[in-house]
Design goal:
Number of strands: 9
CATH topology: TIM Barrel
Helix content: 40-55%
Strand order of the largest sheet: 1-4-5-6-7-8-9
Strand content: 5-15%
CATH architecture: Alpha-Beta Barrel
Number of helices: 14
Length: about 325
């Protein structure tokens, strides 16, 4: 969960010289960023350094990152013609730098450390493309969804096909497992999730499954429709801190689960941080198939020593 993000000094040092896109496009540097947390934190898996919005460049939507504001989409999706002109592209050719990064990391990783590839889920990608960047309200996205449902479904179907192919290519390049990130899907009601998002996550995961790697389905704010989220696919279902781990497990049945420490707990004093970690482990109760993780990404203010302490506590 953002293992190599802004809280690590080595990453910040590289970012003084390179933009996010420059790091992503340079397999040697991206591999270095991917591997640094494995060495510093002692985690059991590396997640490739990339960004879920990288496919927007071959989709000809344009992508920049503005300091302090995040990603900006230069040519956002606003009408049917924008969706109809989206090109179908060869993921191996256009996003080959991500695949090269995976190959480099695989050569450097110890045999007992897994490598995770990832991509954005269709709904989350669509929300960025329609909003033109990040959003708190997703007003443009929901207006598009409600007012032009046929175009919405066409758009998400195209995204699902691309995402599924991209994930499959990452497995063939060496990723041991694949994670589908639906970071913003929690803004939907249960009915809207079932109608406007779930079919396309299901499609993307079904295409990715053909590559044979285990699939992790990640979302935030999914407690109100967790059963539907799990039904959309994935061998592992991620949950955030808004639902207790054991309560989530009782709702999704015999599935592996990933989660679910509140990221801000890493900012708490040691005693409180330890209490929250132990509570999650107690709720897991030694049950097979628990990947201990945060409910979302590491916050920029986080002390690296706090992350390492959590890793050591869980391993202990």
């Amino acid at each position: 969960m953002r293992q190599a993000g802004r809280y690590m000094p080595q990453y910040r040092k590289l970012r003084q010289k390179y933009s996010i896109l420059e790091l992503c496009r340079n397999p040697e540097l991206a591999a270095k960023v991917t591997l640094e947390p494995v060495h510093r934190l002692g985690v059991d898996a590396a997640i490739v350094f990339a960004d879920i919005l990288l496919p927007f460049e071959p989709l000809r939507l344009g992508l920049t990152f503005t300091p302090g504001e995040g990603p900006r989409i230069e040519r956002p999706i606003r009408e049917a013609a924008d969706v109809e002109r989206l090109p179908t592209f060869n993921v191996e050719a256009e996003l080959g730098f991500v695949l090269d990064t995976l190959r480099l990391v695989r050569r450097e990783l110890a045999d007992d450390v897994a490598l995770i590839g990832f991509a954005g889920a269709p709904f989350t990608l669509a929300s960025y493309a329609i909003e033109g960047g990040s959003s708190r309200t997703f007003t443009k996205t929901k207006r598009f969804m409600y007012q032009t449902p046929d175009t919405w479904h066409l758009f998400l179907s195209k995204l699902a096909d691309m995402v599924g192919r991209f994930l499959g290519a990452q497995a063939r390049a060496g990723a041991h497992a694949l994670q589908l990130f639906d970071s913003w899907v929690g803004c939907l009601s249960p009915d809207d999730y079932r109608t406007y998002a779930a079919p396309y996550s299901r499609k993307a995961l079904a295409i990715a499954r053909e590559a044979g790697a285990p699939l992790i389905h990640f979302g935030t704010g999914t407690a109100t429709f967790l059963e539907d989220f799990a039904a959309a696919g994935g061998d592992v279902v991620s949950v955030d801190w808004r639902i207790p781990l054991d309560a989530a497990w009782s709702r999704i049945g015999d599935r592996a689960i990933q989660g679910n420490l509140e990221p801000a707990a890493l900012l708490a004093p040691e005693g409180e941080r330890t209490r929250q970690v132990r509570d999650i482990l107690k709720r897991a109760a030694g049950r097979p198939g628990h990947i201990f993780n945060l409910g979302h990404g590491v916050l920029p203010e986080t002390d690296v020593a706090a992350v390492r302490a959590v890793v050591d506590l869980v391993h202990g």
